[in-house]
Amino acid sequence: MPTRRDTNFARPTDADEFESLIRDICALVWQDPHTEKFGRSGQKQMGVDVLGHPIDARYGVYRGAQCKLRTKGDQLSEKEIEHEVTEARSFPHRLDRLIIVTDALRDTHTQLIVDKISEREVANGGFPVVIWFWDNVTERLATYPKLIIKYYADYFVNLTTRPPIVENLVGKPLSVATIVVGDSHRELHRYLTLRGIRLTDLKASTPRPLLGKIDPDGLLFEFSPTKVNMKQNLQRFVTQLWAALLQIDFACPAFIFMPPSCIDDLYRLYEALGGELDQIETFSVEDPIIDIAHPVFQRVFENGYARRGAIPTIEVTFRSGPTTPDSTLLDVDWTSISDDETFPPSKEWHGQYDSALKDLVNEIGALSSVTRIQIESVLQLPAAIAVGFHFNLRFARVGVWARRSSASDYKSQFWLSNNAVEENILEVEWFAHTSEAVKTAIVEFVTTIPIHETVENFVNVSGIENDLWLQAGLSANGTNITESIAIAYANGIGRLIRQLNSKGVADIHLFARMPSALAVLVGQRLQACGRIHLYWFDNSAYSYTYAFTLS
Predict the structure, then answer these.
(1) How many degrees, rounded to 5, is the angle at CA 341 between CA 337 and CA 343?
(2) Which listed residue, 248, 297, 419, 542, has the most CB atoms within 10 A of its CB?
(3) Alpha-carbon distance 333 to 375, whole Å?
(4) How far is the C-alpha of 140 from the C-alpha of 414, rounded, in Å?
(5) CATH class for domain 15-141?
(6) What is the longest distance spanned by two Cα atoms in the chain?
(7) Which of 272, 231, 228, 237 is nearest to 257 (CA)?
(8) Which of 312, 49, 296, 59 is nearest to 187 (CA)?
(9) pLDDT per position in the chain (551 positions), as tens?
């Protein structure tokens, strides 16, 4: 029996359930909510069980999947495959591809058969044929936590039985409900939002706050009023605390942040109402912020992750804009760097944002070696590169959500970072190359609009010394960047930087113009590459400003 951290889930035993699973996966992969089963068992289906119109297909062109459940795990024969392809030729709609889906394990002999048939069909003006083995199915299934819950909920013993139902809880960002009497501790709130915890403010004026619609993963009560009516305010505060704790599971962490002189009175009043002190944890406003914020984040993360079943796929959204993600576990809110005029100084970056990344890596890294992290990055490029630098290839299985060209949906493609790609698609152009010993290089990473003139102006004004200067472009420039192109480019960047290191280059000034998702993949390959100096692009000045250094 697979464990809840294993992406190789048990095969279905019912053909109809297998078709339903494939339909749901195809609907998400193809981004067509109207993907449907074609016909029913006993009807002539012309080689197609699942039919949809993928987002990348031309108008009027469809994609089909033929589902072959092999409960004993035996491979499809060449005769069976040929039969389904022959049937699909008579399909009334034009197909851009036929996917044969089986629950058998990946097999080279079967792959070669399908490749041979596909080449023949394409040569004759037909559709290509591909095969998804059970390995491919579970790899795609692992990308969508809600599907894992829909079909394999019984594997996840940690799933909550409280409303909202599990399907709604999965994909909901971790959150903390707050009640503030007096002034809120902005530094504490900022610490949590920088690490992906959403804060929902409950009105302190409400005697009995309702948590039903919020269903938080933790509670944070802050008490710092003026000395006027202190006793009355504390009594009201404790009543609110008691009423809120009655509405949540005992395992839900509850934190109280208040002056040390009030803590004993809090305990007395809370126990008088019948409250259990084991359910709350108190902190003094005089404690260092790190001593408060870190355990709060840690406890909320552990509780929220467990409530969602400890699913092996973790969605993390990094954003510097106000638009919130539809589905994620951690909504890392870095809107404070969204304004070009307020880029954080290097010291602030390392003290706040870099430390937030390290905390996230530590918490997620402690879960399991088979956990998959799926990152959606809507960040300026230096920040996106830093995300990849921390969530590097040595850390875990990491993938990124990317946007297709001319598409508005940031989740249009999924790139799994460690997929094998052999192709080298870098186009390197040298602008300066001294023959003497080299220590410093300027490197431009460009996949879209050229930046050399702007970089050159900035370098001349800033006086950045360099022994080497080059630009690493993309040979497929202007085309839609697919997973294979993205990974090939990122791998090429990693090799290029290490070649510079081998020449003696220890300081690299990096300027980039590329999709944010690709910047994450590039950052993953910059570990142990010397000192990487990054620069924000200031739109208002149409120039650059120093961001921070990765090392």
Answers:
(1) 35
(2) 297
(3) 13
(4) 10
(5) alpha beta
(6) 87
(7) 237
(8) 296
(9) 333 344 568 888 899 999 999 999 999 999 899 999 987 665 666 889 999 998 877 888 899 999 999 877 789 999 999 999 999 999 988 999 999 999 999 999 999 999 999 999 999 999 999 999 998 998 888 888 888 888 887 766 555 544 345 566 788 899 999 988 877 678 889 999 999 999 988 876 566 666 767 789 999 999 987 666 788 889 988 988 898 888 888 889 999 999 999 999 999 999 999 999 999 999 998 888 888 888 999 999 999 998 888 888 899 999 998 888 878 999 999 988 765 567 889 999 999 999 999 999 999 988 876 688 999 999 999 999 999 999 998 877 899 998 755 444 444 688 888 877 767 788 898 887 766 778 999 999 998 889 999 999 999 999 998 899 999 998 765 567 888 889 999 999 999 999 999 999 999 999 999 999 999 999 999 999 999 999 999 888 889 999 999 99
Instruction: List the end-to-end C-alpha distance of the chain, in Å, as a whole number.
Output: 43
DSSP letter for 325, please: P
Residues 6+ apart with CB under 8 A from 351: none
Superfamily of chain region 166-307: Cobalamin-binding domain (3.40.50.280)
Torsion-angle region of 423 (φ positive above 0: left; ψ -120 to 50: alpha; else: beta): beta
Can you spell out the DSSP letters for 467-530?
SEEEEEEETTTTS---HHHHHHHHHHHHHHHHHHHHTT--EEEEEEES-HHHHHHHHHT-TTSS
Q: Which ranges in 369-419 belong to alpha helices (H)?
A: 381-390
Question: Residue type at 252?
Answer: C
Sequence length of the chain is 551
pTM over cut 0.85: no
- The answer to whether 233 and 207 have CB atoms below 8 angstroms apart is no
Instruction: Sketch the domain layout of the chain as residue ranges.
Output: 15-141, 166-307, 334-362+378-391+421-550
Q: Tell me, what amino acid is at 548? A: F
**With DSSP H G I counted as helix, E B as strand and the rest as coil, what are the percentages for the chain, rounded to 5?**
35, 25, 40
Peptide bond before residue 164 is cis, with ω within 30 degrees of 0: yes
Q: Are 99 and 66 within 8 A, CB to CB? A: yes
Residue 50: strand pairing partners:
37, 65
Query: Which strand (E) or helix (H) includes residue 168?
Result: helix 166-169
* Cβ atoms of 140 and 25 closer than 8 Å: yes
Closest to 526 (Cα-Cα) out of 402, 367, 404, 394: 394
As beta bridge partners, residue 443 has 470, 510
Strand duo 175-182 + 129-132: pairing? unpaired
